[in-house]
Design goal:
The protein is mainly alpha-helical. The chain has one domain. Helix 1 packs antiparallel against helix 4 and helix 3 runs antiparallel to helix 4. The longest helix is centred in the middle third of the chain and has 36 residues. The model has no long low-confidence stretch (mean pLDDT 92).
Length: 150
């Protein structure tokens, strides 16, 4: 049963890495570099909707990471739990702090203010840190030797 859990955790981490990588490195540059089709404001609105959908996946991943951290602590006393809990914290920050702020700024049309630009830059940095943390968690979890089935 715990081996199945390990596979599900790796799958969830893979989906999370894919979502972060695809939305941040593939979708966003395409949306924001199509001035003939979308202006910056509408591209931002569309990207915001993509992030809202992606946040559903990331929030599930955060729950899986917290549960896996508990399992790892009980079985391995592994330092991996700090990567997992750090990833869950970054997901929570992105989903419940940065995304609502950015969506609110879009709704009030204040996306050119210095505060918005600073928050947006912070959210981009957080997203990059999340990608690195999820990749490290995936690699460490994949290489962690099973002990009592986990």
């Amino acid at each position: 049963m715990l081996r199945l859990w390990r596979v599900l955790v790796l799958l969830a981490l893979g989906v999370g890495v894919g979502m972060v990588l695809f939305s941040g490195a593939c979708v966003a540059p395409v949306l924001f570099k199509t001035p003939g089709i979308l202006d910056q404001h509408h591209a931002g609105i569309l990207m915001g909707r993509i992030f809202v959908r992606g946040n559903y996946l990331l929030n599930v991943l955060a729950g899986v990471l917290v549960l896996d951290a508990l399992v790892l602590w009980a079985v391995h006393k592994s330092g991996l739990l700090f990567f997992h809990l750090g990833g869950a914290a970054l997901i929570a920050l992105f989903s419940f702090y940065y995304t609502p702020y950015i969506l609110s700024a879009q709704a009030t049309n204040t996306t050119t203010s210095p505060q918005f630009l600073a928050m947006h830059a912070q959210s981009e940095t957080l997203f990059k840190a999340l990608l690195v943390l999820l990749c490290l968690s995936f690699i460490w979890r994949a290489l962690l030797r099973p002990k009592r089935g986990v």
